[in-house]
Amino acid sequence: MEGFNHSRVAEFVLLGLTDSPELQIFLVVVFSIFYLITMLGNCLILLTVISTAHLHSPMYFLLSNLSLIDMCLSSFATPKMIMDFFAQRKTISFEGCISQIFFLHLFTGTEIVLLICMSFDRYIAICKPLHYSTIMSEQVCVGLVVTSWTVGLLHTISQLAFILYLPFCGPNVVDSFFCDLPLVIHLACIDIYVLGIFMISTSGVIALLSFLLLLTSYITVLVTIKTHSSTASSKALSTCTAHFIVVFMFFGPCIFIYVWPFTNFLVDKVLSVFYTIFTPFLNPLVYTLRNQEVKAAMKKKLSYQKFNIGKTTPRYPVQ
Ligand SMILES: *[C@@H]1O[C@H](CO)[C@@H](O)[C@H](O)[C@H]1NC(C)=O
């Protein structure tokens, strides 16, 4: 109740990544290029999977759903950050800050569950190949996607319900380029240190457990591939390695920031670049460069599009 007597801050000031003008120009260029490639790459994966009949399998459906989340994840803060590089004073409204936290947790939470679903899919495909088509039916696949978003949303609500009741009465400087929970909780006008650590570490521990679960499932898959050597095994191995690289790049920073939430190092800022800019950029790269099927389908789509430019009536290839 006490919290409602304070007048709430109207906006937060973001310190951004750096003060140096030269470095800022450099980062604007680098981040803009990354953002563009991320959007184009993920868009291409999405369109390729949707429009290629032989890619209509659970693995590729989950992959295209991942691309969709990646586009969301890279869009909720990066464009504003790029624009902010040109602003003298970088600010964000209270509501804007809360919505950044909302989207950050919704998209990362959903992505984590989706990555677990993808590892489950690979586990069934490689360790229980005879039951694959019965277990991974279309309903199950849709169910996994719906579950991912539901869990992501529930996680977000639980974190936000906590922060919305905190009084923000004065301090408003966020030492990063977007609002994240550990940084913002720091600014509340009551001493919530212990509770705050507890709440945030819950996210950290869940991320850590998910990571261990993924690690175990991929190790099981790898061991299975090694013992049942077959002609398909090198392909399975490369798919799983690709999945694993993505998992590692994604979880490393998340766990670091959330398991030790009150260490406001420069490291935290650099790490947040990882999961908002680098991982969404990496996913299409890892999946497409390492996957012959997707690459071949994309090439076909791209050359077909080129061939068709200028024609008035679109024609579709006979499948
Ligand atoms: C996400 O996965 C579902 C379930 O398999 C699939 O039907 C849908 O097309 C996918 N959505 C996207 C955008 O790829």
> Please, how many helices?
11
Assigned CATH superfamily: Rhodopsin 7-helix transmembrane proteins
What is the fold named in CATH at topology level?
Answer: Rhopdopsin 7-helix transmembrane proteins
Radius of gyration using CA atoms only: 22 Å
Structural class: mainly alpha
Q: What ions, cofactors and ligands are bound?
A: 2-acetamido-2-deoxy-beta-D-glucopyranose
SS strand fraction: under 5%
- Count of discrete domains: 1
User: pLDDT average, as an integer?
Assistant: 81
Write out the strand line-up for the largest beta sheet, numbering strands in chain order. Answer: 2-1-3
The gross shape turns out to be globular
Q: What's the story with the biggest beta sheet?
A: 3 strands, mixed
What is the correct CATH architecture?
Answer: Up-down Bundle
- Report the strand count: 3
Q: Unreliable runs, pLDDT <50, ≥5 residues?
A: 1-5, 309-319
Helix content bin: over 70%
CATH class: Mainly Alpha
Query: SSE order, as H and E?
Result: EHHHEHHHEHHHHH
Q: What gap, in angstroms, lies between the N and C termini?
A: 65 Å
InterPro entries: GPCR_Rhodpsn, GPCR_Rhodpsn_7TM, Olfact_rcpt, Olfactory_Receptors
Protein name: Olfactory receptor
Organism: Echinops telfairi
Pfam family, one: 7tm_4
